[in-house]
């Protein structure tokens, strides 16, 4: 989230309440193609203040200003995301945070290939509001300041006029497909500059990462609509739909190599 969030000097009014913060720590393990999907949840005790009214709303979530109150009285701005569906499965919050943590490590791997602009994903968490009846869960992520832009979505679309100007987000999505040996795709890329948030991960099986995982339909949508750009070429990524050795040799660049993998074709 961006512009509408409180500036650093603003102190939110309201009662300080206790909360448990859950953070997903990815670790290597399991099949190499899903090398960032495993991990464990770490729990921390926090004091928080949450605004009474949302500052923004989407189709599924309402966004609230929220601050973490430190022991010395200083405050850290975060954005709380609360489902608009009171009956939504509480595990959705955990799946969303897991997807963002997983995407963050794919970003680290992408950056290792000498790309023109590095990318990152803002840290995200699940909070359990222990002082409230029923101990409700909410999602939260660190506040990032700047102009928020959406670059592609989970059905293969790119924002009109943005693809040539912002090659990086779409090349990153393409990279995750190739670097995972055609197992996953990180898409729905949005954020401030190249610090992203709220990604969606499609898997071939359609399992995991919440209801936005459209499986093969989501993968096909990206693979048929993506237009390779100069960064795809820099990475040596194969043209979407092109599989022959002679076609790949025309791309130039340095074909990417993944951990314990050969050249992706």
Structure commentary:
With 265 residues, this protein is an alpha+beta fold. The protein has five helices and 13 strands. The chain has helices at 91-111, 167-179, 215-225, 230-235, 245-249, and strands at 17-27, 38-50, 56-57, 61-69, 75-83, 120-121, 124-128, 137-142, 148-150, 184-187, 190-192, 195-197, 200-203. It is globular. The two termini are 36 Å apart.
What would a concise description of this structure say?
By secondary structure, this protein is of the alpha+beta class. The chain has 5 helices and 13 strands. Strand 11 and strand 12 (195-197) form a beta hairpin.
Can you tag this structure with a few keywords?
265 residues; 5 helices; disordered C terminus; 6-stranded antiparallel β-barrel; alpha+beta; 21% helix; 4-stranded mixed β-sheet
Rg measurement, Å: 19 Å
Reported for the largest beta sheet, the result is: 6 strands, antiparallel, barrel
On the 0-100 scale, what is the average pLDDT?
A: 85
Structural class: alpha+beta
Which helices and strands occur, and which strands form pairs?
Blueprint: E1 17-27, E2 38-50, E3 56-57, E4 61-69, E5 75-83, H1 91-111, E6 120-121, E7 124-128, E8 137-142, E9 148-150, H2 167-179, E10 184-187, E11 190-192, E12 195-197, E13 200-203, H3 215-225, H4 230-235, H5 245-249
Parallel strand pairs: 6-12
Antiparallel strand pairs: 1-2, 1-7, 2-4, 3-4, 4-5, 5-8, 7-8, 9-11, 10-13, 11-12
């Amino acid at each position: 989230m961006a512009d509408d969030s409180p500036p650093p000097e603003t102190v939110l009014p309201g009662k300080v309440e206790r909360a448990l913060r859950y953070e997903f720590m990815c670790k290597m393990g399991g099949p190499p193609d899903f090398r960032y999907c495993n991990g464990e949840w770490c729990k921390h005790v926090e004091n928080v203040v949450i605004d009474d009214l949302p500052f923004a709303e989407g189709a599924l979530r309402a966004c609230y200003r929220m601050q973490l109150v430190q022991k010395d009285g200083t405050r850290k701005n975060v954005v709380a995301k609360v489902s608009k569906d009171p009956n939504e499965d509480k595990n959705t919050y955990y799946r969303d945070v897991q997807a963002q943590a997983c995407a963050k490590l794919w970003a680290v791997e992408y950056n290792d290939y000498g790309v023109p602009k590095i990318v990152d994903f803002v840290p995200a968490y699940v909070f359990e509001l222990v002082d409230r009846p029923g101990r409700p869960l909410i999602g939260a992520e660190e506040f990032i300041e700047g102009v928020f832009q959406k670059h592609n979505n989970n059905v293969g679309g790119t924002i009109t006029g943005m693809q040539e100007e912002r090659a990086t987000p779409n090349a990153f999505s393409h990279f995750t497909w190739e670097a995972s040996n055609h197992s996953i795709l990180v898409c729905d890329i949005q954020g401030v500059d190249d610090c992203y948030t709220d990604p969606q991960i499609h898997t071939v099986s359609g399992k995991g990462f919440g209801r936005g995982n459209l499986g093969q339909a989501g993968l096909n949508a990206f693979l048929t609509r993506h237009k390779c750009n100069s960064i795809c070429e820099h990475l040596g990524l194969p043209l979407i739909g092109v599989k022959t050795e002679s076609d790949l040799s025309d791309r130039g660049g340095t074909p990417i190599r993944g951990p314990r993998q050969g050249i992706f074709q």
